[in-house]
Amino acid sequence: MKKYVFIALSVMLASCQLNELGEAGKTVRELNTDLYHITITGDAGFERYLAQGGASSTSEMGDYISDYLSCGPWGTLKCAPKMSGFACSALAATNANYEAASGRNYDWDPCKALIIRCVPENAYASISTANIDFLGYGEAYDPMDGIINQYKATAAVYVPMDGINEKGLVVADLMAGDDECTNQVDSAKPNITTTSAIRLLLNHAANVEQALELLEQYNMHSDIGRAHHLFVSDANRRSVCVEWVNNQMIVTDSQVLNNHYLCEEKKGIGSGELSLKHETILLNTYAEHNGILSSEEMADAMFAAAALPTECDYGGTQWTIVYNQKQGSATYYWRRDRARSYTFFASSTVEVIKK
Predict the structure, then answer these.
(1) Cα 131 from Cα 125, distance rounded (Å)
(2) Which of 52, 133, 254, 307 is most buried, taking the most CB atoms under 10 A from its CB?
(3) CB under 8 Å to 45, separation ≥6 — which residues?
(4) β-pairing, 256-257 with 87-94?
(5) What share of the chain is helix, strand, coil (3-state, %, to 5)?
(6) CA-CA-CA-CA torsion sign (232, 276, 318, 338)
(7) Taking CA 296 as the corner, what is the angle to CA 271 and CA 283, rounded to the nearest 5 degrees?
(8) Close Cβ partners of 102 (under 8 Å, ≥ 6 residues apart)
(9) Residue 124, class by beta-carbon neighbours within 10 Å (0-12 exposed, 13-18 middle, 19+ buried)?
């Protein structure tokens, strides 16, 4: 009798995983070379991840994701997230309708990216972007190559690089400029890593104030052994840079963020020539327009601050995003191609693809 009960429970658990993650995997589609989209209805186990204490390292988070994926119908599946340095830019402004708008460049080696529309049951819907090379499945991994690879793509929900939720909160991860690792230790708090913190904020914060309150409730741990700072902007037109120095969280109001510190404790550290160049472009654009930029002008600004492969030792800007925080929308440009764009809405299945 016990044998049959065990089998029944195993089938029920596998069915649960198949319903959420398996159905999500079926939605993976290719938008462009190395650019994909997925819709996840549910949280892919993220609330359970938070409830069991989160993770204090990327490898520990990978163990949790692997266990969760392996509860599904395809046996043991290993997810071993690994990341390396990247350089980026971000800008917050107001559009002609006096609505909050932001721009984001993600600068890195040529990679595969996954745009994720996540619709959790008891959290905010969002649009986010993951570099799926960071999942550790290997260079040959293709999320379109069979059911198992589609299923495994759902793990990307834990490692977003940026995103916007239905309330208009925008969060983006940028390198801060040195190798100082944040490893906060408070036994009364659960743990979180840099990228999973972005998922936390997209799921549960409606504005900057709530985002900062949430971050204070967790021990932050740096991904990839490098210093990060977060660009956080909301529909109320507040934008901040969140940094960690000596394991203390420091918040600086700012419209622009690149790859050097803004806080007084480390101001300017990490200021490479390209980072300063991009910061100057964005600050000048903001000033010239008195902080009011249309969607096209925001795109112009981000393209002007894009990294070209000829001027850096990596692949340049991989994706550019223009956010409308009133609409909760994200318009993507892939690999510096201004002619083609992809617009997604956090709270709607409507998509606008321009070629």
Answers:
(1) 20
(2) 307
(3) 64, 65, 68
(4) antiparallel
(5) 30, 30, 40
(6) positive
(7) 25
(8) 90, 91, 92, 93, 170, 231, 233, 239, 298, 322, 323, 325
(9) buried
Q: What is the pLDDT of residues 296-315, one digit of tens each?
A: 999 999 999 999 998 888 88
Give 182's contacts (C-beta < 8 A, 6+ positions apart).
220, 221, 222, 227, 228, 244, 247
| pLDDT at residue 17 greater than cutoff 90 | no
**In 10 A of CB 51, how many CB atoms?**
10
Q: Could you tell me the two tokens for 322?
A: 């223009």
Contact yes or no for 154/24 (Cβ under 8 A): yes
Q: If phi over 0 gives left and psi between -120 and 50 gives alpha, with beta otherwise, what is residue 178?
A: beta
Q: How far is CA 158 from the centre of its chain?
A: 9
Query: Is residue 220 within 8 Å of 56, Cβ to Cβ?
Result: no
Token duo for residue 182: 């944040």
Query: pLDDT category, 350, cuts 50, 70, 90?
Result: confident
Instruction: Please report, for residues 128, 175, 271, 346, the alpha-carbon distance to residue 38 in angstroms, rounded to integers and kept in the order given.
Output: 10, 26, 36, 13
Give the span between the Cα atoms of 108 and 114, in whole angstroms. 15
Helix (H) / strand (E) element for 113: namely strand 113-119
Q: Quote the CA–CA distance of 220 and 355 in Å, as a whole number.
A: 41
Burial class (CB in 10 A: 0-12, 13-18, 19+), 47: middle
Q: How many CB atoms lie within 10 A of CB 35?
A: 19
Residue position matching structure tokens 């795109």: 299
With cut-offs at 50, 70 and 90, classify the pLDDT of residue 226.
confident
Neighbours of 314 (CB within 10 A): 17
This prediction has a pTM of: 0.93
At 170 the three-state DSSP class reads strand
Rounded CA gap, 206 and 168, in Å?
7
Q: Which residues contact 60 (CB under 8 A, 6 or more apart)?
A: none
